[in-house]
Automatic annotation (TrEMBL):
Keywords: Hydrolase, Lipid A biosynthesis, Lipid biosynthesis, Lipid metabolism, Metal-binding, Zinc. PANTHER family: UDP-3-O-ACYL-N-ACETYLGLUCOSAMINE DEACETYLASE 1, MITOCHONDRIAL-RELATED (PTHR33694:SF1). The gene is lpxC. Belongs to the LpxC family. This is UDP-3-O-acyl-N-acetylglucosamine deacetylase. Its cofactor is Zn(2+). It holds the Pfam family LpxC. It is an enzyme of class 3 (hydrolase). Catalyzes the hydrolysis of UDP-3-O-myristoyl-N-acetylglucosamine to form UDP-3-O-myristoylglucosamine and acetate, the committed step in lipid A biosynthesis. Zn(2+) binds at H93, H256, D260. It catalyses: a UDP-3-O-[(3R)-3-hydroxyacyl]-N-acetyl-alpha-D-glucosamine + H2O = a UDP-3-O-[(3R)-3-hydroxyacyl]-alpha-D-glucosamine + acetate.
Length: 307
């Protein structure tokens, strides 16, 4: 197949190592991240794709490939978890950024259980990855071509959530979301690395302050860290019908839904050639759509770009 407009024809990795430090949105804990290039994805000691390595005292405690089989349901984020219970939370912004920067192979070393939230958006990741540069690899770029429509639905009436993916010649999204006081928001367009970087990546995680405080307390009671690291510096906090400090982008909330959706679908291992339509998407619904697509083996195929 020919390369879709805006994408490169070869697979790639980082040109040099990337390091980042921040705090987790849910745990509030400091975390260091080191992303290492993988230049030979066919080597016996290397794994193709994106791999997370939890490190403690410079020793590996768990190894997790970013794939649907390791996804574990969590409130307000996406988690990869091994059979021994150890995992890495809040991977979606980083996975979206690696996919959008066409970094197909890398090892993400992390010394805590949660990827740092940074400023609540994917923009710091995009800027850091671009600063490191991309090294082209000899393998042709792969896409997942959608061959027939697949849909998932949850709820009914005003609470109905619906997601659908269908064949298209490029990666497209149409996402709608509504929030009381802000009205109906929609983002519709072709998803390319440049579009993601300029129109999607700057959008921040958001939430109502009146909802966050009870969630934090409930998390302490249940022994599950939720939003302990949430601050105005790493979220778009909503009070009443306004965002403290204002919005970065028009319809920032729905754009962040697109960001999360891109990151969750990145667990498939490649960009889609298909159109994703979503009404009120969530992490759980994103994964349900991905799982439904992959379960129907005649609904998709791997395809390579011509070199």
């Amino acid at each position: 197949m020919s390369v879709p407009a805006g994408w490169l024809a070869s697979q790639g990795t980082l040109a040099r190592e990337l390091t980042m430090r921040g705090r987790g949105l849910h745990t509030g804990r400091a975390v260091n991240v080191r992303i290492v290039p993988v230049r030979d994805a066919t080597a016996a000691d290397a794994s193709p794709g994106i791999v997370f390595r939890r490190i403690k005292d410079k020793r590996e405690v768990v190894w997790l490939r970013a794939e649907p089989a390791l996804r574990h349901a969590q409130p307000l984020c996406t988690m990869l978890r091994a059979a021994n219970g150890l995992g890495v939370r809040t991977v979606e912004h980083l996975l979206a950024s690696l996919l959008a920067c066409e970094i197909d192979h890398a090892v993400v070393e992390i010394d805590a259980e949660e990827v740092p939230i940074l400023d609540g958006s994917a923009l710091p990741w995009i800027e850091a990855i671009r600063a490191c540069g991309r090294e082209a690899l000899p393998q042709p770029k792969c896409f997942i071509r959608v061959l027939k429509p697949v849909a998932v639905v949850d709820g009914s009436g005003a609470q109905r959530r619906e997601m659908r993916v269908e064949p298209a010649a490029r990666y497209e999204m149409c996402v709608r979301n509504d929030l009381k006081g802000f009205g109906d928001m929609q983002w519709n367009g072709a998803l390319t690395p440049e579009v993601f970087a300029s129109e999607i990546a700057p959008s921040r995680s958001y939430g109502r302050v009146k909802w966050a405080v009870p969630a934090i307390v409930a998390g302490y009671v249940r022994g599950m860290p939720i939003l302990r690291g949430a601050r105005p510096s790493c979220t778009a906090p909503i009070v009443g019908n306004r965002v403290l400090g204002g919005m970065r982008l028009p319809d920032e909330f729905v754009r962040h839904r697109v960001l999360d959706l891109v990151g969750d679908l990145a667990l498939a291992g490649a960009p889609l050639l298909g159109r994703v339509s979503a009404q009120r998407p969530s992490h759980e619904m994103n994964f349900r759509l991905l799982a439904a697509l992959l379960a129907e083996r005649d609904a998709w195929e791997w395809t390579e770009c011509a070199t």
